[in-house]
Every structure is written in structure tokens, then in C-alpha cells.
């Protein structure tokens, strides 16, 4: 046999081996990442849900619904290989015929950090058994002290300015969701409550200030383990950056009204927005604007301010403008001022500075949400003046009046169409 023939056979034999290896790799890949996710309901897996970490979790009120297959993934949310692109840990599913969002409310590294904190405060090693150690972690001290403002202060932005009335309302709404009175909550349910408050208070915010009472947040269905179920918004606000002028005016008007309603309302709780980005606003199919990420909302009890009467409590407080040069989506604020002043312009500042005006600095979206107005609006100049005064006022406390006039002006554009 010639040398060339031997070389050819060796090459051909090696090529067949490589081809077989590639074939088996594709079969395994297809089975693990394509076939299995669509043939197996991962939402019954306690490890995937994070139920195995309870009571250091958001709750168990929806676990039976998951176990019975009433909540099912939609489309690509079934594919775990895509999780590397799922930065926000949000999945989409169907629940009793409704589109819902499944949210972990944090990155895996943040859950690891919570687990380490539980182990440390429970006087155990870093790889401790979370379900058992949670019962004698620092959460137990808070429960022993009676879930008071003093014991819960600084656990999250929601209780950065705590009051007994706020804590009572949060506990009442939390218990109501479970079909109980606050005094009927079990020790385990209190651990769920504190774990949520410390890790990400969003579920408590959605229950305390529910959409059913007119608050601009999604509906909260419940949780199983470390996965929550909330109303799904059709699109984020960023999808409307290039929408028609009047559509953007409508959404901008809703934003300003939300800023007003969260500042002044019958409940006498001011909810201050501290993280405003296009991704944190959602728009429903009927065009209603919601805030879909409420982890960093600071809640202030206005009745407490009236009772305590700190120095200058009833004077108006003006938020200082910050250029935030070289930074994207920057918003500075003074927490202590928000806690002690009855009248602040923070929410108007946040919306105008970070979303509507030319100062809005989110990457890829120059000029703010109200960019490129019609020539008639540009010639009139009133919109630009009000946006400037709302974001960076020249007149002392001018932001208060500018915000009201801006709401009226945006409304007038919609009436003229």
C-alpha cells in the first residue's frame, strides 16, 4: 500500500472519529438544553425556585401553584442556556391564563452574600445550612425586639425613615396577603418578611402600596422560595424612546403625575424615587405607565414629621442639582432631608433630571424622553423653559411651580391633537 494511501486512511479515520464526537456533542447539547427544558417543568424544582433556602426566602404562598403546574414558562424562558444573558433574573410565564413575570429580585452573587450574612450572624461557617441557621441569625433578634422601627432601621431603603405607622401598615398588608391578621403571623412567616425586607423589599412595597388602591405599581401575586410572581408589563419605557411625539408626551405626563401622587397623597406617605431608568418603568398594553422596579424607593411617613416637628420641618426643601459629569443615570439626594421635611421637590427633580430634560444621561438615549419636539413647540420655548426650571431651577424653590405648570402644558398638548 502506498504511503499516500496510508496517510489518506489515517486522515479519513480521524475525520470519522471527530465527526462522531461532534455528533454526540450535538445530541447531548440538544437533549440537555433544548429537549429537556421543554419536556420537564423546571418550575416544580424546589432548588430552581429557591424553596430549599426557606425561610430565608420571599415566602411560600404560591408553592402549591408551582407544584401543581399552574405556572408555566413561556417561550425562551424555558432555556437555561439563555440565563447567561438574563442579567436581571426575570422570566416570563403563564398563570391562570395571564402573562406574568417571575423575578428573583437579585443576582446569584447577591443571594450568596445574604447566605453568608445569615451564616455569620448565626455564628456558623460560611457554608452553613441556611434553612436551619436562619432561625437563630440576626433575624431572630429583630423578631425578639418586636419588629419595631428601631430594630428594622436601615435594613433597606423602604425603612430608611421608619415609623411605627409605616411598620404597622407593611405588616398589616403582608398578613392580609396571607389571609391573616398581623398577630397571627407564624415565626417562619416573620422570617420570610425580614428576609424580603433585607434582600429586596419590592414584594413588600407592592403589597403595602397595591395597584388595587391606585398606586402605580404592578400587581403582586405571591412567591415561592426565592422567586416572585408579578403582573407583566408589555414593554419597558425604553421601547417608546423613538415613539411619536404625542405618545411620548402622554407617557411623560403620566410620569409627572406619578411624581406628584407619590409625593402628595391621602395616605400621607411620601414615596421617593431614587433609581430612575428606562428599564424601571413599564407600559401596559392599554398604555398605562407603571414603576416596575421599586427596590430603592424611600418611604417617609408625613404624619410622623408633623408629630415630631424636626427643625424647619414645614419649610420647603429643594433638591440640589448635580451635573453627574461622565456618569450615566446619576441621581444624588439627601436621605436625612427627605426624612425630616414635609414638602420636598425630590420626585419632580428625579423625573425631570433623569428622564425628561436634556440633562437625562442614559447611554444611547440623548436629549431625554422629550427629545426632538415639533417646530411649533421649539419656537414657543415654554416646554424647554419648564424642563430647565424643573431640573435645574434658577428661582429658589422654582421646581415646585415648574412641575405643576409642566403637567398643565403636557396636558394641553394632548388636548390639541
From TrEMBL:
Residues 196-393 form the FAM69 protein-kinase domain. It holds the Pfam family PIP49_C. Keywords: Membrane, Secreted, Signal, Transmembrane, Transmembrane helix. Its main location: secreted. One of its GO terms (cellular component) is extracellular region. The keyword Ion transport does not apply. The chain crosses the membrane at residues 21-40. It is found in: Secreted. It comes from the Eukaryota. PANTHER family: GH11358P. Belongs to the DIPK family. This is Deleted in autism protein 1 homolog. It comes from Branchiostoma belcheri.
Amino acid at each position: 500500500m502506498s504511503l499516500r494511501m496510508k496517510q489518506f486512511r489515517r486522515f479519513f479515520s480521524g475525520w470519522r472519529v471527530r465527526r462522531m464526537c461532534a455528533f454526540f456533542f450535538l445530541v447531548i447539547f440538544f437533549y440537555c438544553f433544548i429537549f429537556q427544558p421543554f419536556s420537564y417543568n423546571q418550575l416544580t424544582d424546589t432548588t430552581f425556585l429557591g424553596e430549599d433556602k426557606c425561610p430565608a426566602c420571599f415566602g411560600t404562598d404560591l408553592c402549591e401553584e408551582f407544584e401543581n403546574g399552574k405556572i408555566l414558562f413561556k417561550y425562551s424562558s424555558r432555556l437555561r442556556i439563555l440565563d447567561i444573558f438574563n442579567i436581571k433574573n426575570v422570566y416570563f410565564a403563564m398563570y391562570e391564563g395571564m402573562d406574568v413575570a417571575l423575578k428573583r429580585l437579585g443576582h446569584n452573587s447577591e443571594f450568596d452574600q445574604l447566605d453568608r450574612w445569615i451564616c455569620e450572624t448565626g455564628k456558623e461557617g460560611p457554608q452553613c445550612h441556611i434553612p436551619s441557621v436562619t432561625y437563630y441569625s440576626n433575624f431572630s433578634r429583630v423578631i425578639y425586639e418586636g419588629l419595631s422601627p428601631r430594630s428594622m432601621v436601615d435594613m433597606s431603603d423602604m425603612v430608611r425613615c421608619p415609623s411605627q405607622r409605616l411598620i404597622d401598615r407593611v405588616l398589616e398588608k403582608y398578613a392580609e396577603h396571607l389571609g391573616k391578621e398581623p398577630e397571627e403571623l407564624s415565626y417562619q412567616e416573620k422570617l420570610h418578611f425580614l428576609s424580603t425586607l433585607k434582600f429586596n423589599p419590592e414584594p413588600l412595597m407592592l403589597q403595602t402600596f397595591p395597584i388595587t388602591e391606585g398606586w402605580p405599581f404592578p400587581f403582586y401575586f405571591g412567591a415561592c422560595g426565592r422567586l416572585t410572581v408579578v403582573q407583566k408589563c408589555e414593554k419597558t419605557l425604553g421601547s417608546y424612546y423613538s415613539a411619536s411625539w404625542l405618545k411620548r408626551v402622554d407617557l411623560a405626563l403620566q410620569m409627572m403625575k406619578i411624581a406628584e401622587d407619590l409625593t402628595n397623597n391621602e395616605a400621607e406617605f411620601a414615596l421617593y424615587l431614587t433609581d430612575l431608568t428606562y428599564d424601571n418603568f413599564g407600559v401596559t398594553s392599554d398604555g398605562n405607565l407603571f414603576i416596575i422596579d421599586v427596590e430603592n424607593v424611600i418611604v417617609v411617613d408625613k404624619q410622623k414629621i408633623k408629630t415630631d416637628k424636626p427643625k424647619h420641618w414645614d419649610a420647603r426643601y429643594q433638591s440640589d442639582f448635580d451635573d453627574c459629569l461622565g456618569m450615566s443615570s446619576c441621581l444624588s439626594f439627601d436621605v436625612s432631608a427627605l426624612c425630616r421635611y414635609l414638602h420636598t421637590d425630590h420626585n419632580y427633580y428625579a423625573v425631570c433630571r433623569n428622564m425628561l430634560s436634556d440633562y437625562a444621561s442614559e447611554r444611547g438615549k440623548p436629549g431625554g424622553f422629550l427629545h426632538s419636539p415639533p417646530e411649533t413647540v421649539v419656537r414657543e420655548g415654554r416646554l424647554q423653559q419648564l424642563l430647565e426650571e424643573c431640573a435645574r431651577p434658577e428661582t429658589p424653590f422654582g421646581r415646585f411651580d415648574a412641575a405643576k405648570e409642566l403637567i398643565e402644558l403636557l396636558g394641553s398638548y394632548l388636548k390639541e391633537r
